[in-house]
Specification:
single chain; about 425 residues; alpha+beta; 4 domains; 11 helices; about 35% helix; about 25% strand; elongated
């Protein structure tokens, strides 16, 4: 209706709009009021003292011995334990602090405080991986994937490389249910190395055998992101890095070759002691060899001497000598053959240090040379400290008087009467 050229709405219609606006405001009030009621409701259902720490989470690991794949499922309860059938549902309930029920006569739990200390760690593990299951679950509203005719198992967590590290950290020292070939076993999680070693024995006067002390395919090696694990009978061992690089590395050579022993003759012993044993340290135990035989094949202690000098062009020169007792050799002279045993692994490590510092091989004089000024400066200011800890350093007047970082090279060595005088760097 128009009045004085102005549209005037009927009173009834204006009243309806006000009522709708009031309804919206009332809804806003109810949201905050109901939230407060929810808080009160939670307080009304707080755990009694006797219920705190009473709920237990019990894992069962399903292990496929043919593929090495691992999955883990969980049971929850107090006196009796019930399987968590849907981890994504459990995740939702715990995150939103809603009651999760389990058992034939439903028992409700909504608080982290309901779980004992060990189970709280497992709860965190479930919640971490449960989120991924929820996202991937085709029945979940948050799924970003489409599945066609495949059934998605939400009752188990697949244990990958990172997962086994995390799970072991939680369960170390505990006995855990393992399901292998449909049978349940109690497997103890141990933070130690298994008893896996190798023995060198004499087969006859000229032949020898290296054998492991176990059947090589009776164990499983499980690779984590940080560690390797050995499943041996009813024990899961978390191996040290040193054990991985020695005993396990040697074992995997046997496994890849599908062999239970290695035969060798006298000629091979030199390579065994020069190349293999220095690399695997104490993994191989020696039996039936006399002291005379060991002296014949086992290298003496390697002492590396380094003679440092500068030439007229200002290039840094390094002459190397490897010393075994009274024997001294130039390792860069490949024409000379030596009959005594050498520690080839350690020799190679020492040669590689010079290559890393930028030294180049000078074939004419069978020595190393460093022509780059920046690399010379770095060697004298930084690298020489590492070299002095491993080698005997000997120097000339030319080296000592060179005006590059004198605080690093002062009092290293001097030449007397044309000979090298030796002062070990400190």
């Amino acid at each position: 209706m128009w009045y004085n050229n102005t549209l005037v709405k009927p009173i009834e219609k204006r009243g309806n709009k006000l009522q709708n606006d009031y309804k919206k405001f009332k809804q806003l009030v109810n949201i905050f009021y109901n939230e407060e009621l929810g808080i009160l409701d939670k307080n009304d259902h707080e755990l009694q003292e006797k219920d705190i720490g009473s709920v237990v989470i019990e894992p069962t690991i399903i292990f496929d011995k043919f593929t090495g794949n691992m999955k883990v499922e969980f049971r929850i309860g107090r006196a009796r334990r019930y399987k968590i059938k849907d981890i994504s549902e459990f995740y939702d309930k715990m995150i939103n602090e809603e009651s999760y029920s389990y058992g034939e006569r439903p028992v409700y739990v909504r608080s982290r405080e309901a779980f004992n200390e060990q189970s709280k760690k497992l709860l965190d593990f479930i919640l971490k991986y449960g989120e991924s299951i929820k996202i991937a679950n085709p029945n979940s509203n948050t799924s970003n994937y489409n599945y066609y005719g495949s059934k998605f198992d939400t009752s188990r967590i697949i244990v990958g490389n990172s997962g086994i590290d995390e799970l072991f950290e939680i369960l170390k020292g505990e006995k855990v249910k393992f399901q292998i070939d449909g049978k349940n076993e109690a497997v103890e999680f141990l933070e130690e190395n298994p008893n896996i070693e190798f023995v060198l024995t004499k087969k006859d006067e000229k032949e020898y055998i290296i054998k492991p002390n176990i059947e090589i395919f009776q164990i499983r090696i499980i690779r984590g992101k940080k560690h390797k694990y050995v499943l041996k009978r009813n024990r899961l061992y978390c191996c040290s890095k040193k054990f991985e690089d020695t005993n396990l590395k040697l074992l995997e050579v046997f496994r890849k070759q599908y062999i239970n022993e290695v035969e060798l003759n006298e000629k091979h012993l030199k390579d065994l002691f020069s190349i293999i044993i220095p690399k695997v340290k104490n993994a191989i135990h020696i039996q039936d060899l006399s002291r005379e035989e060991l002296e014949k094949y086992k290298p003496k202690e390697l002492i590396t001497k380094v003679y440092l000098d500068f030439n007229k062009k200002g290039y840094l020169l390094a002459d190397l000598r490897f010393c075994y007792g009274n024997e001294e050799i130039n390792p860069l002279d490949e024409k000379v053959k030596y009959n005594f045993p050498r520690n080839i692994i350690k020799e190679t490590e020492h040669l590689n240090l010079f290559k890393k510092s930028g030294f180049m091989f000078e074939a004419k004089n069978l020595r190393f040379v460093l022509p780059d000024e920046d690399k010379i400066y770095k060697f004298l200011s930084e690298d020489i400290a590492k070299y002095s800890q491993r080698f005997e350093i000997l120097t000339t007047d030319a080296f000592r008087n060179k005006q590059i970082k004198p605080t690093q090279i002062g009092n290293v060595g001097v030449r007397l009467n044309g000979r090298f005088a030796y002062n070990k760097l400190k």
